[in-house]
Amino acid sequence: MIRIFNHYVSKMAFILLLLELLMLLASASIASALWFNDGAGHFRADNLYLSSLTFALVIIFSMSALGMYQHSSREGIRTTLIRIMPSFGLGFALLSALIAVRPEMYFGRGISILIFALGATGVLLTRLVVFKSAESALLEARLLFIGGGQLARECIDLAASKFGFHQFHVIGCVPLQDEENCVPDACLLPMGESLLEMARKYEASEIVVTVTNRRSRAFPVNQLLECALGGVRVIDAATFFEREACQIRMDSLQPSYLIFGGGFDQSLIRAATKRAFDLAASSLITLLTLPLMLAACAAILLEDGGPVFYRQERVGRDGRIFSVLKFRSMRTDAESAGAPRWASRDDPRITRVGRIIRLLRIDELPQMVNVFRGEMSFVGPRPERAYFVRQLERSIPYYGVRHGIKPGITGLAQVRYQYGASVEDAIEKLQYDLYYVKNNSLFLDLLILIDTVQVVLFGKGSR
């Protein structure tokens, strides 16, 4: 994994993206060189460069939006083709809309077919080569865990689930005295020699410390220092989860990790950049979705004649209360009992129109007003109601940390986790929110915005 503006990115996924970008550029350039001229046999490089770059970037965006850089399972030719076809279909639709605005970028029907064919073939071949390389044992990270408790078990489960670009081989766990064993006996390694000798014997590329009680006499602090000085990388479980799952896990979190772990950029430059991004993204989305919002208004009025908008108090940055604006998706008497409650699956309070606009996330669009007012950001932790916040802060440590920045219309928890409707869900989403608060950047905002397209298109997590 590599860090780009504090966010962890798979090396193989990054290499794949660069190779596919070059392949798409080459496909457009080769096809254009064969067919694109000004009628007198002269080459028109201005149109070639602009059109080729546009084609490549749009296809890369389409593949990113449909999750093609989130490789988590074995892919053969058939599976890769099935994933490529919708991405190129979305790219074709986006390019068609762009050409309608800029007709001079149109290649022509024949050359367009050739470019798409060459591009799809190039992407297919590139992916097969990269995926085959990612499965090589030479690129496998070999992990040695210190400790055999519940945290070690969770780390092993995470390592086993990382089949895709970044694969792991778990060597085993070195248990410590006075620690409950939660891993299979087959994973346990005897502590009969020094950790450095063990790491070299098993060719460990990384040692992950999963011990929660580091003040115990059994904790091998000197041996871990010897490993670090001997060239073996040593990390703790919190860093492992942050790097591999984009989570700051509550069960491995210590206050010192938040205090001394870096991140939490609240500089003036970051604030100005984020505000500019918020205004630009909100303005663009508002213009593009204005017809959808007008249709939603008409549909809500036609269904029951009730109010179109719904205002609800939410907790914002530093605990300040503000009124969030949404399209009404529930009956007007949804909370007639008086006490707020989370939405449930197939909630009977949701109207027919409400079910559709929730599925497509159209009900969230009026929150652009909150962004323009400065109460929300486009990307950030989702704002929660004060009633639930008071409950969650009493039961979940560090829950208030998510209020250190402005809440957002979309966020990392929204694109990585299902709809939250319980305390357990709130804990899972908080772990993503803490990662975002700690590592937020314009780069991460853009990645979340791209992932949001996939969430909207496939209705993930709606309720």
TrEMBL record:
Signal peptide: none annotated. It is found in: Membrane. The keyword RNA-binding does not apply. Residues 274-457 form the Bacterial sugar transferase domain. GO terms for molecular function: phosphotransferase activity, for other substituted phosphate groups. It comes from the Bacteria. This is TIGR03013 family PEP-CTERM/XrtA system glycosyltransferase.
